[in-house]
Design goal:
Layout lengths: L4 E3 L14 H11 L6 E4 L11 H14 L5 E5 L5 H14 L3 E5 L10 H14 L4 E5 L1 H4 L5 H7 L5 E6 L4 H10 L5 E6 L7 H11 L3 E5 L15 E5 L2 E8 L2 E4 L5 H6 L4 E3 L7 H12 L3 H21 L1 H11 L16 H10 L6
Parallel strand pairs: 1-12, 2-3, 3-4, 4-5, 5-6, 6-11, 11-12
Antiparallel strand pairs: 7-10, 8-9, 9-10
Length: 357
């Protein structure tokens, strides 16, 4: 599956009394669906997933899934400390129609989180998961930083398709990209090389009541059956698809280092800052994709200080206030997180003044 571009890891809105505000959740998702973002991540760290009950997590997944546009890749944060609970939640996400499971590194028993433990955990989850699995590394929150060498070893598993690397370590990104370069897999994409998931293909097939038809683009007629390639188009319903070779895909989580991370080989990013400024983040990726290094650098400089303050320094409360400032619904956070001071709000407003979305 193709995981390229920008993905906002959406927040979970709350009423003042602390209950989940599902209408605002749906409104935010509908608005992100109209941006150029490649997809949406639900129940990441920015979504305060760890502060939700089991039932709330299930309800949030369901609400976001129903509100999302059908052409957006949907990633569910399903990581729980035990492999068995992670698999149960991943199975629920699959039932709802999510495309990828993002599984954070278990970390509570830190002394026991040795390479053997991590290999066993992720291989067990990947073996049994009904969804492709992404590793999620966020050492600033978990206190555990999965080594690049361990990621490279895990990347050989056919159902482990990528990692969200939120450490901000660009050299680690480079090491993982170089160390997994030999891994080549085929992903279904559109004619213009955008992501298509099995859910999208199934929906297209149901809509038009037909299967796929293989068409060789630009090739002379032949009695031989066409072989799948980058030039072979499969028509599913009215959706034209082709195959693209992809490797183990590294997505990053630090917006202030997006451009250098892309240069290091990252395929895209899951950025908390994109919750408040999705288009500004996408513009960096788009300029890089067009090989316009100078424009990408300028776009990166434009958001660097704001991203560092809003996400790096202030965390979820900063992200939510940035969303409020830019027209999304951020709202309050759950304890033990606290609302921002007046000074912090003023600082955000100053830095986001020219990063409006």
């Amino acid at each position: 599956m193709l995981l390229q571009g920008i993905f906002p890891p959406i927040t979970t809105p709350f009423y003042p009394d602390g209950n989940v505000y599902f209408k605002k959740l749906e409104s935010n998702v509908e608005r992100y669906s109209r941006t150029p973002c490649a997809g949406i991540v639900v129940l990441g760290s920015t979504g305060e997933a760890i502060l939700l009950s089991d039932q709330e997590r299930r309800d949030v997944l369901k609400s976001a899934r129903e509100a999302a546009a059908p052409n957006k890749v949907l990633i569910a944060g399903t990581g729980i400390e035990s492999a068995i609970e992670t698999l149960r939640f991943t199975e629920y996400a699959a039932e709802l129609g999510y495309d990828v499971a993002m599984v954070r590194t278990p970390h509570y028993y830190k002394k026991q989180m040795q390479p053997g433990n991590m290999l066993a955990f992720y291989r067990t989850v990947a073996d049994q998961s009904p969804l492709p699995v992404m590793i999620y590394n966020f050492p600033q929150a978990t206190g555990y930083d999965i080594p690049a060498e361990l990621v490279i070893e895990l990347a050989e598993h056919p159902n482990l398709i990528g990692i969200k690397e939120s450490s901000g370590d660009v050299e680690k990104v480079r090491t993982m990209v170089e160390g997994t370069r030999q891994i080549l897999r085929s992903a279904t994409v559109t004619e213009t090389f955008e992501a298509i998931t099995p859910r999208m293909l199934a929906a297209a097939s149901r809509l038009h009541g037909e299967g796929g038809e293989l068409v060789q683009v630009g090739a002379a007629s032949s009695s031989l059956p066409p072989k799948p390639s980058s030039t072979a188009v499969t028509v599913v319903g009215k959706m034209k698809t082709r195959q693209k070779e992809v490797g183990f895909q590294v997505l990053v989580g630090a917006a202030q280092k997006l451009h250098p991370s892309l240069d290091a080989g990252a395929a895209g990013a899951i950025l908390a800052f994109a919750c408040a400024a999705p288009t500004a983040c996408y513009e960096i990726y788009a300029a890089w994709k067009e090989n316009d290094a100078e424009l990408a650098r300028l776009k990166q400089e434009r958001i660097a200080n704001a991203a560092q303050l809003v996400v790096g320094d202030l965390g979820v409360p900063g992200v939510k206030y940035g969303m409020d400032f830019n027209g999304y619904f951020g709202g309050s956070v759950r304890l033990p997180l606290l609302p921002l001071t007046g000074q912090a709000k003023s600082d955000i407003e100053r830095l986001l003044a020219d990063v409006r979305n």
